[in-house]
Amino acid sequence: MIGGSNAAAELSGLDRWSDPAPAVSSEERLRRIDRARALMKEQGVDALLIGAGPSLSYFTGIGWGMIERLVAMVLTPRGEPFLICPTFEVGSLEAILPIPVETRLWEEDEDPFRQVAGILRQERSTQLAIDPDLPFGMVEQLRSAGTSCAVVNAATIVNGCRAIKSAAELALLRQAKRMTLEVQRRAARILRPGIRASEVATFIDQAHKAVGSAGSTFCIVQFGTSTAFPHGLPADDLLQEGNMVLIDTGCAVQGYQSDITRSYVFGTPSAEQRRIWDIEREAQIALFEAARPGVTCEDLDGTARRTLMRHGLGPDYALPGLPHRSGHGIGLSIHEAPYLVRGDRTVLRPGMCLSDEPTIVVPGAFGVRLEDHFHVTEDGAAWFTEPSQAIDRPFD
């Protein structure tokens, strides 16, 4: 149903998720560290530096964001991981650590990168792989701290671990996405002529909290011609009869992300709105049906683009057509490797989780994006959420 209700009624019908997925176990985090060490050995690397952020959370369970103070893990081939931490934060750190580590503390007037350099000398490390998300300034500070290690990019190690999701991760992702789909369904019900996009975004945040998340991790609400801009315009749209509606939003469950987009019309769709919507769905389904182990990420992007070209859209990034990649990996980050784009020759493997969102933009008129996620199985792919069936039945 689109319209016919209100925010108060829809919020009153929401409860905290009744079947929450279990947390990732300490044993699983230790297996992740073992996997990282195996990849380090394959690549001739004898030390790995991971800074605060999603990858540190992945390996250690420390869900702290990157700031100017260094909080980091140094992983070497043997022994417990080393954890670099400001001294005044050690109590908070110990309260949340699910795995054993060897802590190296630093005071505010000390250089924390000397701790890192000391570990590398102690462990006789010669090849250091650095977290690709570590800020350039921190890498320069490490160089200045006196390490003599050769430095390489740790992306293949980090992505080699994070890209393949475990059963526990799949359960957390499934919960997050289903929570957001329920929020999307209820957001459609509160629409009315004259409602502002900001009012809908506020409702979505409140609804995400009502089902048990911390709120929306992001929220894009667009009406009418704004939908022709994939990430919107700096305007607070007012909904009118016949407008295309595009809502792209997500939440997190224990750090694992959702990112669901629905497009539909408030009122009666025009023939052109229906035609473009149907092509978008055809492209989304074609991409999904092509996903299986052994196929490359760029193959899936090509599948979606060929579908559009058969209907006279594109080619490549030309408009009307698809102006961006067809999808992305998802996990602890909303966008993470691999990516469904030409040039990404990553081969799909069971456990990879990806978005499927071949947006169609008709300049000056409207855009349609249908975004759901799937995980690669042994012989194909499986949806986390069921895709929309029709422009006037977006939540069947």
UniProtKB/TrEMBL annotation:
Keyword Transferase set for record: no
Peptidase M24 domain span: 172-378
Keyword annotations from UniProtKB, A to Z: Aminopeptidase, Hydrolase, Protease
InterPro entries recorded: Creatin/AminoP/Spt16_N (IPR029149), Creatinase/aminopeptidase-like (IPR036005), Creatinase_N (IPR000587), Pept_M24 (IPR000994), Peptidase_M24B (IPR050659)
SUPFAM superfamilies according to UniProt: Creatinase/aminopeptidase, Creatinase/prolidase N-terminal domain
This protein's record includes keyword DNA repair: no
GO molecular function, one term: aminopeptidase activity
Residue ranges of every copy of the Creatinase N-terminal domain listed in the record: 32-164
Protein name: Aminopeptidase P family protein
Organism: Sphingomonas paucimobilis (Pseudomonas paucimobilis)
